[in-house]
Structure formats: C-alpha cells, structure tokens
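Input structure tokens:
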C-alpha cells in the first residue's frame, strides 16, 4: 500500500469520528444547559475549550457565546474542529479511496455532505439545531457501521481502525480534562451540590456513556467512578483503555511496528496505572495533558513510519 493511501485512510477515519464526537458534545451540552436553573450561568466557553481552541472572549457575548461556539464547532468550514469541516474533508479524502472501501460508504457520505449544505444554516436556530446534530451523528455512525461490517479486515481497514481509535482516545481525554476539572473542586464527601449529578451526567452524555456507566456502576454518580469508567474500563468502546488496546492490536499486525507499538503500550500502561481517586483530589489537568501529549507522540510516530514513505 502506498504511504499516501495509508495516510488518507487514517485521516478519513479521524475526521469522521471527530465530526460525530463534536456533534455529540454540542448536543449534550445543549441539553445540560436546559436542565440548569436560570440563575446558573455556564456558557459555551468550556465546550470550545474541549477542542483545544479556547475562545474565552465568547463568554462576554450576550448569548453566553452560543452563536460563536456553534459557528466554531458545527458550521464553520474554515475551523478544523467543526463537524461540517470534518465531513467536508473526509469526503475529499474518500474521493481518492473509493476503490478501498464499500461503494455504499461513498454514497452515504456524499448524501450527508449535500444534506448538510442544505440544512447547515439552521444549526444556529435552537429549534432545528438538534435535527442537524442528529443527522451528523446518525450519518457518521451509519458510515462507520458499513466500514465495520462490510469491509475486509485487510491493511486498509487496519489504518481506518487506527485512526478511529486514536481520535476517540484523544476526544475522551479532552472531555475528561475540560469538563471534569471544575467538578473536582467539590469534594464528593461534602454536602451534595444540587448540580454535581447533572454535571457528571453531562460528562457521560458527551461520550454517549451514561447508560453503560449505569450498568457498570450500579450506584450514585461520583467523580472517581466516572473517571475510572472513562479511563480504564476494558469493555466500553470510548474509554481510553479500550481505544488504545484496539490501536495496539492493529499495530501488532503491521510491519515495522517497533517504535509506534512501544509508544502505544507505554501510553496504555500509564492509563491503566492511574488512580482515579488520586485524580479527583490531585492534578487531573496535568495528567490529561500528559496523556494528550502521548497520543500526539503516537501520531507522530505513525506518520514517520507509515505515512512519509
């Protein structure tokens, strides 16, 4: 396989997963804001910060930064973190990959792209925004379903799987970092905050993890349990441990894998050795930054070994 093709497959998968995650994040935050009392002001700044592109000035706007956040995260075709940007660029990459994936994948993505062109402007309207976000989420999940059920487990699928797993691990770490850190100022042992449960639920909903967490936890929602689930659960597909185990399995099947495989195994070991209870009372932000740096190093290693030939 040409290194260019491997690179395109990897980034096609990352763009597709990023679009879904961003739409899901915006949707979950919108529902979270509806559950808060009027006197509680959260705004959209923290959600923009999840993408690594903080826009602190948007919190000074009259609408709490909502319009600017939706523009940056959903509809702006010049913003690398927006859902529409990711769909647009995934479609551009797929043009050169149509012989590598099932034909239905191109038809579904092409249809999603043109549908969003028609409906995209309505994302700023609260009444129609959820329809647009659901279309992105459902479209991306449908395409991923085709890739996982109608595509041979060959070299092309391995690079797709690598892109999906690394992108998901990165988004999970960012949501834990930005959305969970403010909650850790409230000790679970103190008098319960009326909003803590809703805030932790929003963290789980941002990753579509609430129902699986309830099956896993079977108790009240606490910071320690949520962090343990999202970081270390071996069975939930959006946990960091699960994603890196998938990446490790794919790397083991690739040639010339020594350096990237070591990066992946080292990062997985660090996650499995974390103490969630210590994170609740310690330096969660620093740990998440270290994990994100590790994922960036893994990406650089993959680029050097497979995509720059």
């Amino acid at each position: 396989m040409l290194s260019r093709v491997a690179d395109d497959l990897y980034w096609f998968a990352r763009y597709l997963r990023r679009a879904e995650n961003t739409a899901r994040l915006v949707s979950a935050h919108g529902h979270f804001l509806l559950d808060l009392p009027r006197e509680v002001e959260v705004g959209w700044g923290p959600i923009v910060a999840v993408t690594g592109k903080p826009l602190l000035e948007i919190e000074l706007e009259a609408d709490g930064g909502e319009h600017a956040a939706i523009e940056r995260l959903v509809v702006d075709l010049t913003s690398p973190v927006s859902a529409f940007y990711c769909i647009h660029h995934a479609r551009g990459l797929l043009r050169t990959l149509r012989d590598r994936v099932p034909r239905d994948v191109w038809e579904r993505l092409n249809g999603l792209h043109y549908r969003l062109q028609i409906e995209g402007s309505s994302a700023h309207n609260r009444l129609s925004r959820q329809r647009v976000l659901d279309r992105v989420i459902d479209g991306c999940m449908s395409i991923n379903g085709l890739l996982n059920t109608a595509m041979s487990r060959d070299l092309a699928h391995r690079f797709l799987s690598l892109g999906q797993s690394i992108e998901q691990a990165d988004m999970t770490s960012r949501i834990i970092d930005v959305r969970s850190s403010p909650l850790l100022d409230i000790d679970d042992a103190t008098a319960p905050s009326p909003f803590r449960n809703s805030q932790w639920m929003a963290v789980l909903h941002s990753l579509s993890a609430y129902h699986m967490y309830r099956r896993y936890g079977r108790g009240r929602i606490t910071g320690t349990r949520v962090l343990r689930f999202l970081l270390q659960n071996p069975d939930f597909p959006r946990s960091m441990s699960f994603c890196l185990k998938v990446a490790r399995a794919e790397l083991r099947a690739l040639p010339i894998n020594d350096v990237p495989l070591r990066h992946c195994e080292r990062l997985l070991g660090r996650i499995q050795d974390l103490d969630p209870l210590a994170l609740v009372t310690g330096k969660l932000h620093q740990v998440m930054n270290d994990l994100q740096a590790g994922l960036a190093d893994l990406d650089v290693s993959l680029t050097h070994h497979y995509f720059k030939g």
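The chain has two domains: 1-151, 152-309. The two ends are 11 Å apart (CA to CA).
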